[in-house]
Amino acid sequence: MNKNNTRFYEIDFLRFVAAVAVVLFHYMYRGFAKGGSSPISFAPFDQYAQYGYLGVHLFFMISGFVILLTAMKRDVSQFVISRIVRLYPAFWAGVTFSALMIVFFGGELFSVSFSQYLSNLSMVDGYLGVKPIDGVYWTLLVEIKFYALIFALLLFKRVENIDWFLGAWLAVLVVNIVAPLPKAIQFFLFPEWAPYFISGAVFFLLKLRGIKAGYLALLAVSYILVLYEIKNEAVLLTDYYSTAFSAVIPMVVVTLFFLIFGLIIVNKLTFFRSIWAVKIGALTYPLYLIHQNVGYILFNLFDGLVNKYILLVAVIAFVLLIAWLIHHLVEKNLGLLMKNLLNQWEYKAKTLLSWH
C-alpha cells in the first residue's frame, strides 16, 4: 500500500495480468474456435490460450478485495458515486468506439443498431433482453449484482459486519449444491461466481483486521466452492467449444491466485509496488472493454496480408493504445467532471434533508 494505506500496487499489476490473459484467450483461442469471429488459428499455442478465461476469475477475486476497500471508506451515497464514476466514463467510450468500428469495418460478421447502442450505454442491457455490442459486457452484469449487495449492507449500515454476511452467503451456496434454490435467489446470489468475490473480500478482511481463525475458515470454504465450480465449468466449456477443457489446470491456476493474495496480505510481493503498476493497471478496464470485437474485426481485415504473429502483436498494441487514450482523455476528464457534479448534487440533497 502507499503511505496512506489505500493503494495496493500488487493488485494493479494483477489487474493487468488478468486483462492480458482474457485478451489472449479471445485472440488466440475463442475467436477461431467458436462462431468464426476470427479467421486465424494460433495452433498449437491455442491449447494454452484456451485457459486465459481464468483472467475473469481473477478479476472477480480482485473486485471482492477492492470493493470492500472502497465501501469501508464511504457512506452509501459516496459508494454509489464512486462506482458510477469508476464504471461509466470508460464504458461509454468503449461502447462508442466498438460500435463505430462495427459500423465502418464490421462487414457481414458484426452489426449494431442505433437502438442497441443506446441501450448498451445503460450497462444493464443484458437485463433488458438487448444483445451487448461486445460479449465481454456480461461480466459487468455480475459485478453490478455484487455492488448491489454491498450497497444494501451500506444502506442498512451493516458493512462492518461484512464477515457475518459473507459467512451466511457461503452457507446458502453450500445449501444450493445439496438442494438447488429457486432461480430468483440464485440470480441475486450468482453461486457460480460468488466464491471468487467472497474469497477476495475475505483476503481484504485478513489484511485489514489481521489473521483470524474465522476468516481462514471462510476462506477455506470459499476455496472448496471455487474448486467445485471449476469442475462444473470445465464440463460446460468442453461441451460449448467441443474441445477438452481440463479441470486440473484451472484448479492449479486458481490455487495460485489464492497463494498470490496470501502473499499480498503478508507483504511478500512488495517488489510490485511501483508507479508502473499503477500506470498499466489503469489501462485494464478500457482494454477489457474494447479488445474483443475490435480485435476480431482487425484480424478479419488484415488476415493474409501480414504474418499472423506480427498481426497479433500489432492488434494488441492498437487496443492498448486505444485503452490509453480512453483512460487519459475520457476516464480522467469526464470522470472528474461527473464526480464533481454528483458530489454537488449529493451535497445539495443532504442539505435539503437536514433542513427537514
What do you see in this structure?
The protein is an all-alpha fold and 356 residues long. The protein has one domain. Helices cover 74% and strands 0% of the residues. The chain has 13 helices and no strands. The chain has helices at residues 9-33, 46-49, 54-71, 76-105, 114-120, 138-155, 162-178, 183-189, 194-209, 213-241, 248-265, 275-302, 308-355. Helix 3 (54-71) runs parallel beside helix 6 (138-155), helix 7 runs antiparallel to helix 9 and helix 9 (194-209) packs parallel to helix 11. The radius of gyration is 21 Å and the shape is globular. The N and C termini lie far apart (42 Å). Residues 1-5 have low confidence and may be disordered.
Instruction: Give the uncertain stretches in residue-range form.
Output: 1-5
> Averaging pLDDT over every residue, what do you get?
93
How many domains? 1
Number of separate strands: 0
Order of helices and strands: HHHHHHHHHHHHH
> What is the count of DSSP helices, taking H or I runs of 4+ residues?
13
**Derived structural class:** mainly alpha
Distance between the termini: 42 Å
Amount of beta strand = under 5%
- Estimated radius of gyration: 21 Å
Largest sheet: none
Helix content class: over 70%
Overall form: globular
